[in-house]
Amino acid sequence: MTTPTTLLILGASGDLTRRLLLPGLGSLLERDPDRPLRIVGADRAPLGTDAFAAQLAASLAEGGAGDEIVDRHRLSTSYHQLDVTDPETFSAVIDGLGVTDRLIIYFALPPSVTERACQTLVSCRLPEDTHLVMEKPFGYDLASARSLNELVDRLVSDDRVHRVDHFLGKSTVLNVIALRFANRMIQKVWSADDIESIEIAYDEELALEGRAGYYDHAGALVDMVQSHLLQVMSVVTMEPPSQISGRELRDAKAAALRATRLWGDDPATATRRARYTAGTIGDRSVPNYLDEQGVDPERDTETMAQVTVEVVNQRWAGVPITLRSGKALGKTRKHIVVTFAEMRHLPEGLIGGDGPDRLVIGLSPDVMELHLTTNTTKDPFTLEQSTLVTDLRHSELNAYSEVLAAILDGETMISVRGDAAEECWRITDQVLEAWQSGAVPMEDYVAGSPVPADWKPALG
Ligand code: NDP
Predict the structure, then answer these.
(1) Is 85 a pocket residue for ligand 1 (Cβ < 6 Å)?
(2) What's the maximum distance between 2 C-alpha atoms anywhere in the chain?
(3) Model-level pTM greater than 0.85?
């Protein structure tokens, strides 16, 4: 039986709540209509319960919730005007909720306000089964992530802190776990003995799309590599867990991240950064990034980042793992590519081959391709690549709803643990430092062009 839960959303009239959180809840409630859930909104705007209820109803419906579910939540919700930096009002709101079971506080607030809200909560009395949901970014560098961890530690135990990374809710990432740990054939080749390199890429045709307020401060490295791609990497490289549980998975992922170093321990050769200039993507004209509304050239923000790392342990030492994400590229490619080592010896008499065998796991569309070397149909002594393709299982829920389902169940399996969040910053802090010191030049690429051909991992 699911524990009766009150979900208190701080920042209830913000963008995340409207566009992702409430629609995500809508889909989840449509699947699990009987979840004992009460949704409460709080924000500093003088919105009133009726206005919030209307917004809630629209967003739940947008996520696919049917009329009966929408009406139930519209009628049971409430809204509180609250400045989260004010301890008295915050305490009164929490006490007034009268929660006797589970309280989930969702910080859909700007990151700096989230930190101040946590400071305020230190002086409030929280119900025993209180969970905190922290959005990304969790801190802005290693030191700030550490101090935020210390702060939330004073509020609840770490198994009640859900640091959201919706990539971990993507079915494909969950599929990687099944693929790796339920297939003897894959399990046998999943190490440096048989794998030459790994690429985890999230290259998008989408450009800035009016998000300068957030993106121009973050850039591709912090927006994508620091959080999502390192998390995906930890799932691809972690040691086999003995069971699928929050404790086991998070221990295994954290160990992989702790063993991760920049390739050659040198941010200057292990990383690349670039920014798009004006171009065309399909029939869309895209302006130079620096001319986009809200962009400050002084911030020198990159729109494509590539980082090559090595997981320095017995399984992976020597295998370059390249993480890359870019905006405004000519082709959207979101995938994990595992490239297998060449054969040690090819029998004389066999000719050709189109390069090494590869396993490609699509991160949407969720398709898996295995590229294997076979004979050509015409000549049995000439080799070519054949591709086996399969669709991977799609979850009926989107990534946000999957994450929300776990949070409402009090399950931390697909959220980021505090030490893992710090490890990700440890890795990217070195990159940011090198970039700020000018050790890595800012390159440019024309919007709509492919990833530059020379962006290969810096090996050696
Ligand atoms: P918004 O600025 O749209 O919303 C934040 C809300 O918090 C606003 O309604 C704001 O009110 C309110 N707020 C600010 N200060 C206080 C305060 N002292 N007390 C109470 N409420 C306050 O931000 P987003 O919704 O875009 O982002 C929220 C979080 O989600 C951030 O951490 C962001 O990084 C993360 N996130 C957002 C995504 C998105 O697509 N939007 C995607 C992934 C993560 P006011 O308007 O009056 O300032």
Answers:
(1) yes
(2) 82
(3) yes
